[in-house]
Design goal:
Length: 346
Amino acid sequence: MADPIGIRIQNLYKVFGPSPQKHIDDVRAGMSKDELRDRHGHVLGLRDINIDMPAGQIQVVMGLSGSGKSTLIRHINRLIEPTAGELWAGEQDVMALGPRALRQFRRERTAMVFQKFALFPHFTVLENAEYGLQVRGLGRKARREAAAQWIERVGLKGYEDHYPNQLSGGMQQRVGLARALANDAPILLMDEAFSALDPLIRSDMQQVLLDLQQDIGKTIVFITHDLDEALRLGDRIAILRDGEVVQQGTGQEIVLKPANDYISSFVREVNRGRVIRCRTLMQRGPAVEGPPVDGSLVIEEAARLLSAEGKEAANVVNKRGQVLGTVAMADIIAAMVPPREEACPA
């Protein structure tokens, strides 16, 4: 298993048009997206993106249509060339790679899962899953063994000889995931990977990804327009608007401390009980009469446990079972209700 590597994006700009370098200084000086389009006929894709994506974690990039999120993920493996800026994968300067080294980087250091599955219709499940290894020149036996392993891991054992048109949408996306994982790249890029799926299948695929990540520990960049999906999957989240990062941090930080009205409008209807964790509400102090809960447990689950046991507070413990503090049912209930100024008007 390849060791995960972090991604560092610094001062990244993308201007689309025939002469992007001619206008990059204007963009740096603050020219708006509309002004760039109206005066110069160019389109601002990204402006001054700075994101550190920790190794072995899921970094979600979220935004509405046109925010630049898909443009951003395609910069990581240079499917789109930046107008200016730096891209690092671990200690590797991605911008310094020549054509041959870039092809090797794409084949061996990154793997991509697409929204529309991108499976070969004339290939079987097994042939699709092994395709990346075939491109890398791996022998038939070795690549088939690796592909079969990942087909089983994503829950498709027994479907190796089926063709994509014989599978449901969720099953097809599992094949795409198996193909990406079989490549054993340290970076996994997922561009709206579950957006085309029905809600129940989408939720199932999210859980598949979370379960797999417990074992594989890849550096995953996940693009989505759905806040619930972002909060469920992301160790860290960056929210884009018009090509700029509006806010980034953990899901809890974004929900509890929105940077502006735009972010507040996103998080207003969030089920806080499924986002806020016990360690956030924990009060330091001695143990109380109540059940132990892990600090990472979401408060909705803690409330359910306290209600079942008829207790008013729980002891927050670490992995070794040591008591770190307590969390009270009253504080949990208060945290689940958005502040009055965030509530929607009647």
